[in-house]
Amino acid sequence: MASGTALIYDEEMTTHKLLWSDPVCDIEVPERLSASYEQLKRYHLVERCVHVPAREGSEEEILLVHRSETYSDHLEVAKSTQTMNEEELKRVSGNYDAFFFHPNTYRCARLAVGATLQLEDAVMSGKVRNGMALVRPPGHHSQRNAANGFCLFNNVAIAAEYAKLKYGLQRILIVDWDVHHGQGTQYIFAEDPSVLYFSWHRYEHQKFWPSLKESDYDAVGLGKGKGFNINLPWNKVGMGNPDYLSAFFHVLLPMAFEFDPELVLVSSGYDSGIGDPEGQMNATPEVFAHLTHFLMQLANGKLCVILEGGYHLKSLSESVCMTVKTLLGDPVPQITGEMAPCLSAVESIQNVRAAHKAYWKWLMYEDESKITNNHETVKVERFLELHMKNILFPVPPIKTATTDSNSSAHLLPVPVHLVKEMDKNEIKALVSGFYGDLVKEDKTLLSLGSMLAILDKILKKEVCNGIAESPTTSVSVAVALRHSLRFGFQRVLCIFVGDMQIIPNTEDGKILMIHICEKEHFSLLLKDAEGNDFFSAVLGFILPVAYSYQPDLTVIAVGPNRSLGINGISLLFALLQGLAESRIFAVIENTEINLMQSVAKALVGASTPHFGMYVSPTQEKVNTIKMLRDQFQQEWKMLQCSGKLSN
């Protein structure tokens, strides 16, 4: 299995620069690259990445996308700019919308293409698992026959065509989280069902550049490509972390899992982050860690992140670092602040769902219908300085732990660390003092030594996550929950998978329980989330509720008679690692080794297993999720982007 994260950076791409004054183009500066790279060095991330050298993209590779007769003429013009003086460069640049030439622009643009393809080759060949390319000029506005919006060649579009040609890929997902619409990418793949293109962008009802009707939610693609172009327009500035996460939960992720891509490419513009003069949005850097984490669960982890925009250097560089840390497998920082999307975001998301209902199985039974800030740089710099100190945390030295008493320990992945179980006398004293009402049998008492030893390591932040075997899962979990609250944790999310007796929670408000099972008498319950009903349950309900709750710890208990398969359980563990600084405690009732191994792989950060061919969810299950959303959306605001809005 591939491991490692590639980083591609070539200082020569900083030589592309504006030689005259232009208020439109003067924000596209070389420091965008150098500041990002320097911040990566300060966080000691460069030394942890696999260095992959950039190269120039060939003309043949560029012409995979820019192959029209008109563009060939333009290609000759681009070449000719290498020997032009400033006046000539200024005149040629004036032929394009928001673009400038420097004598080295053509060379830098070829390096940007080549760096993108080098990253893709490294990922597809298995040299690395994922990676990021820091490139200039960016690419997503570039069309087949025209430079546009700081972009000369469409780096990501070329990468998609290259992957189809060289590796025979049939399903490629492009996620464009830049604040501008990547209209160039949309035009290139409008009729191509092999490329699913998702873009969110500042739109303001067509008032914001590029001010195109086809940037709205109802532009779903053309011909065979209908349904494969997803535009999510932001119709006001100030969108923040909950708005971005809601877009993933209620639009992108369900579509992506149904599409089942073989490769994910990200047009990674950070002008959608806080402080950017172009975007004027409020999303903080750590949200990009969460978005990256979710995309890592697709395509067996094959993820290539390609830099696009980002014009506030502090916001840009911190967001780049958050992305790379996540690609490297570091725990994801917690999102702070109220988790509730704004009404404008809800409207946009519901309009996208309505526009795409005819094309996607997961929307088949959903009731969707259409619904008809000024950032000061100095303040943002200071805010980000303090904010990053608050959200960044020491990564525990050990990722995943279990104990010797786990009968399957020797069969688990090598990175799983063995900890010594708690002394029997110590367990007895602890149980008699605090948990006597929960523990009645000696065999349960003995199993607690293993469970509490791992949990203590997690609570003390010596270990990121852990996995314990138990003969009586419900009792072990009840003890674990009470132990966590005694330690001082205020919000614990507990998810039960399978049939087990749940011991009532007496700490009102400090524990949120969700039960995935066959029975129907628990307050927060998802019945029979098997097969692809899993995605309706997890993406449409569990993740939005969990992100609304923002737990300090996640406990997942797996018992007998599970309606959820091994791959589904593993993916559930992987998706929930975005919460609680990735603190997850797995308690699994003595069961088959395959489940223990699969969960352990998810916890250590291995690529999640393929979920299998997508089958549309049943109407009964979709209706169950809709009823739950309607019931709980006032309490858990992240549910409000799907289903009916309560008054």
Give structural notes.
It comes from Hemiprocne comata. This protein has 647 residues and is of the alpha/beta class. The protein folds into 2 domains: 5-391, Arginase, Chain A (3-Layer(aba) Sandwich), CATH 3.40.800; 398-639, Arginase, Chain A, CATH 3.40.800. The protein has helices at 31-42, 59-62, 69-80, 86-93, 105-124, 155-167, 183-189, 241-259, 286-295, 313-327, 343-356, 377-391, 424-435, 442-459, 473-487, 533-549, 566-576, 593-604, 619-632, and strands at residues 5-8, 50-51, 130-133, 172-176, 195-202, 229-234, 263-268, 303-307, 398-403, 417-419, 463-470, 492-497, 511-517, 525-527, 553-558, 584-589. The strands form 2 sheets. It has an 8-stranded parallel beta sheet, with helices on both faces. An 8-stranded parallel beta sheet has the order 10-9-11-16-15-12-13-14, with helices on both faces. Helix 8 (241-259) runs antiparallel to helix 16 (533-549). It is globular and about 85 Å long.
Quickly describe the structure:
This protein is α/β, with parallel strands linked by helices. It contains 19 helices and 16 strands.
Relevant terms:
647 residues; 2 domains; 19 helices; Arginase, Chain A; 8-stranded parallel sheet; single chain; 16 strands; alpha/beta
- DSSP summary: helix tally: 19
> In CATH's first tier, which class of the largest domain applies?
Alpha Beta
Helix/strand class: alpha/beta
Quote the CATH topology of the largest domain: Arginase, Chain A
What is the helical fraction, as a range of percent?
Answer: 25-40%
Distance between termini? 50 Å
Annotated CATH homologous superfamily of the largest domain = Histone deacetylase domain
Main beta-sheet strand count, sense and barrel state: 8 strands, parallel
Beta-strand percent range? 5-15%
General form: globular
By CATH, the architecture of the largest domain is named: 3-Layer(aba) Sandwich
* Rg for CA atoms: 25 Å
